[in-house]
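Chain X:
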Amino acid sequence: MIDQILDFNKDFVARKGYEKYLTDKYPDKKLAVLSCMDTRLTELLPAALGLKNGDAKIIKNAGGLVISAFDSAMRSLIVAIYELGVEEIMVVAHSHCGACHMSFDHFHHQMIERGVTDETLDTIASLVGGIQGHARIRPQDRCDHQDPSARSEGHCGSWVHY
């Protein structure tokens, strides 16, 4: 599959297919959207929000969550606010999210079969435990985990897609 994607990319670059997507790094709408990485949202989310390339910083992870002040979602939001001029943040959840039902027990056995070490399993178990705890937070409460200055200087809201 990756070879097919790379072949497509080579052709895409050769015919300059990227030119219609050119924009700068600053989001035109000064907006960041934190959402789930679910494949059902790849095209649906921007279409449902009326966003086009360059309008917003789209940050995706499993569950569309900010787990701690030091995770990658928080780092991305901080960069978006302080480096890229974002003034508003949307947190958009969706129904039937697999991350909301994640449990370490569910995939622990599969990881052992693939040769994951006990030390790595212990680390992952602690992380997944944290995800489980936060995945049950109501979407409207998720902004409470974000940088306080994001709330005081701009707008932060959350929505659920069903």
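Chain Y:
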Amino acid sequence: MNPLVFDGVGTIWAHDSEGNLKYIDEKINKVTFQAQFDWEKVMGGDSGYAFHYTAKDLADKVSIEVPRYSSALAELSQGAVTVEGPVSFDESEEGVLIPGEGYTVKRPKEYGGKFLSGSEEVYLKDNATGKLMKLGKAASTPTAEQYSVTDEGKIISDTSNDKKNIIVIYKWRKDSGTKSGLSGTRRPKPFKLVHRFELLDDRSGKPVPCQLTIWRALGGGTLDISQERKKPTVNTMSVEIMEPGITADNPNGYAAELIFGI
């Protein structure tokens, strides 16, 4: 085939050992595959050249750089456990006690969730010094050192606290959400990785379909969940190539394959 210049990326996806599609992403920055074969020199006698070479263990390098987070990527690279269902969030808000109205927390309504009464902490804030004074909870008719709250998250206090700033720390619940659980004993599981991309044949000017397949891969590397102002994070999954064995769809037992439609 004609020589090809590798430029650009395509789509990657991964299946677990049971054949279930675990991950697919077309918004990738970089896929690296560096095949590495080295010899161990065996020296003897007066010659400065080796008289025998012993093959070292293969040192192929594979990595994937992705500019966004997904729970599936956390599973593949870190051995995280994904749980879907009800979730609760810790929240903080600062507001003002409006005369006759108090203050109602906002986040649960914004996200279609429910305020969890009993989880809240309420503080009066001195705007001049920033000092916080914790208010006690009253069942009804709060004093100047107390507050009361409804099931909807409406907070009221004594009229002497009207127009004062408060800080509320609380929890709220959403009926549907996703958790990525990272335990201290986690281990990533093997998967099959495919990278489908397209290159250009400079001689003919026609596109060439290409594919990299890692038949049995094991993830690792850095899952970056950092947040920095005006700077997106990038996740880099290191991929170890494992001995795949011989199967019906891989009868030659190749660990990796590069396929070109030319």
